[in-house]
Amino acid sequence: MDGAWWPSSRDAAAELPGLIAAVDRLLERVTLRVGLHGDAWQHIPRRIPAHGRQVRVGWFRYTDPRVITLSFASGEPVVLLIIPSDTAGAAAEATLKLIAQDIAGLSIDAILNLAHLPASRAPRATADGPAGWENEGGSVSGQETTSTARPSALT
């Protein structure tokens, strides 16, 4: 686990541009691809525009829905724990602070337990769920939401 992210919603189209910009800036690398669990997000685009390029978005059903992975041209990918958007502010901030510490070797469940968040809690898409799937993308339906800035932690 390389860090944590507390998005404002499960709307991938609204949330991913800010995450990509923050990771690019903080790590001084260019994000090329984002991988996430398809059932944990709404409005998942195939690509996200970012500083004159298109970042590919891949969604999968066999990954942990509590993490998101960002890949770059060089170096290891970055894996972030997703703090569910409906998490209370104090609990989310405590999780971000915990992640900023040395958590090497801890499982996701152990991290969530230390942060006093339910280990089994994973974000889920609404009942509208995935409307159709393709190899590298698809579409989902659901309510549109707006994104507001929230703290994130990268270690």
For the structure shown, list the relevant keywords.
155 residues, alpha+beta, seven-stranded mixed β-sheet, two-stranded antiparallel sheet, 3 helices, 9 strands, 28% strand, DUF5994
Mean pLDDT: 79
Number of strands: 9
Radius of gyration: 15 Å
Shape: globular
What class, by secondary structure content? alpha+beta
How much of the sequence is in beta strands?
25-35%
Q: Specify the number of helices.
A: 3
Biggest sheet details: 7 strands, mixed
In which range does the helix fraction lie? Answer: 10-25%
Structurally, how many domains make up the residues? 1
Order of helices and strands: EHEEEEEHHEEE
Query: Uncertain spans, ≥5 residues at pLDDT below 50?
Result: 121-149
Spatial sequence of strands, sheet with the most strands: 3-4-2-5-6-1-9
How far is the first residue's CA from the last residue's CA? 9 Å
Region (Disordered): 123-155
InterPro entries: DUF5994
Biased composition (Polar residues): 141-155
Give a description of the structure.
Mean pLDDT is 79; it is low at 121-149. The protein is globular. By secondary structure, the chain is an alpha+beta fold. The chain has one domain (3-126). The strands form 2 sheets. Strands 3-4-2-5-6-1-9 form a 7-stranded mixed β-sheet, sandwiched between helices. A two-stranded antiparallel ribbon has the order 7-8. It has helices spanning 12-27, 89-100, 108-114; strands spanning 3-5, 31-37, 47-50, 53-60, 67-72, 78-82, 130-133, 138-140, 152-154. Residues 141-155 have a biased composition (Polar residues). Residues 123-155 are annotated as: Disordered.
